[in-house]
User: What shape does this take?
Amino acid sequence: MFEFPASTPEYPGVREHDRHGRVVGCKLEHLDITSTFASAPWPWYIAGPLIGLFVPALLLAGNRMFGASSSLRHLCSVILPGRVEHFRYDWKRIRLWNILFIAGTGLGGFFASQWGGSHDVQISEQTRLSLLSLGIHDFSGLAPREVFTWSALFTLKGFTSVVLGGFLVGFGTAYAGGCTSGHAISGLADLQLPSLIAVVGFFAGGLLATFLILPLIF
Assistant: This one.
């Protein structure tokens, strides 16, 4: 059963009760919708459809496919094309929109990290216990500091997770012709069999790393 939220500093309001004492409503007072959406995580029923709607929006805007990993090639073409034929093409005409999209993604992430409120990830107690058994104790922020800091980068688990893991992600997206956004969102929406195979591989690789590889590293 749906329950109305309690009055909090973030959501000031007054609960309304019926004659039996049951909560029947919550009248919000002086609620700033803009600041609320900017400082709190968006619920899945808002963020999920918005991400999904990017696919038809880009197709209608100019027959463009939603994806992120392909921007690496375009950035190489912009910054240092050299004599490599793979990077010598008219990126301004073909993929300028993709570079701007990635730039906006990074800029939005920066703004959210600075002024987006709390970034603590809510995880289940079982997940917390599993991470504790691996030696991870800091659950503040978006990523554990025992792994994702400059000092941890020179440890075995940090180097393996960040450097080697990053290389495998970059190689895999190039080899598979797309990343999770390109295959799992655009490809599946277009009913592409290669994208379905790629997504199955994403999940299989994640399960393999979680239950077999991470216990060996940590």
